[in-house]
Amino acid sequence: MRRWRPGLTSLGYGVLGGFVGLLAVVGWLLDGNLGIAVCLVAAVVCLAGAMGGDLIGQVVTAPNLVAYQHLLGMLPRMGVPLVVCMVVALDGGVLQAAGLVYYILPIYLVCLGISTVVTTQRIAATHPAGKDQ
């Protein structure tokens, strides 16, 4: 049985932080300080969804519920950014004018990739292949 490496999560969040830093530079070039602030808001929104998904993955730990663990974890991972995008699109205002949705999209995709790798590695480490559950 492979052992779960928590350092993979730290590496993933480090990659996400580097990507957000690059995107903040783009935001600063486009909108100045407001672009940086909107980029950070988008990062917090996506990170909140990812951490909510990880939390559900830690709470649902029964061996026969691995698929449900992953699917229930997708609810906050997708739901939080989607709800924020809908609220911003319907409400308008400064966040919409600065393009919050356009910052959420790439951060969400990077965050989704990192969360998928971390989740599948965690499942592979705790549930070895070839063993009926």
Structural write-up:
With about 130 residues, the protein is an all-alpha fold. It has one domain. The chain has helices at about 5-30, 35-60, 65-90, 95, 100-125. α1 (about 5-30) runs antiparallel to α2 (about 35-60), α2 packs antiparallel against α3 (about 65-90) and α3 (about 65-90) runs antiparallel to α5. The radius of gyration is 17 Å and the shape is elongated. The two termini are about 15 Å apart.
Amount of beta strand = under 5%
Write the element-wise H/E pattern from the N-terminal end onward.
HHHHH
Ends: how far apart? 14 Å
The pLDDT mean sits at 83
The count of domains is: 1
- Radius of gyration from CA coordinates: 17 Å
Structural class: mainly alpha
Query: How many helices in DSSP terms?
Result: 5
User: In total, how many beta strands?
Assistant: 0
Low-confidence stretches: none
Shape annotation: elongated
Describe the largest sheet. Answer: none
The proportion of residues forming helix, as a percent range, comes to over 70%
Task: Give the SSE map.
Blueprint (H helix, E strand, L loop, with lengths): L6 H25 L1 H27 L6 H26 L2 H4 L2 H27 L7
Helix pairs in contact: 1-2, 1-5, 2-3, 2-5, 3-5
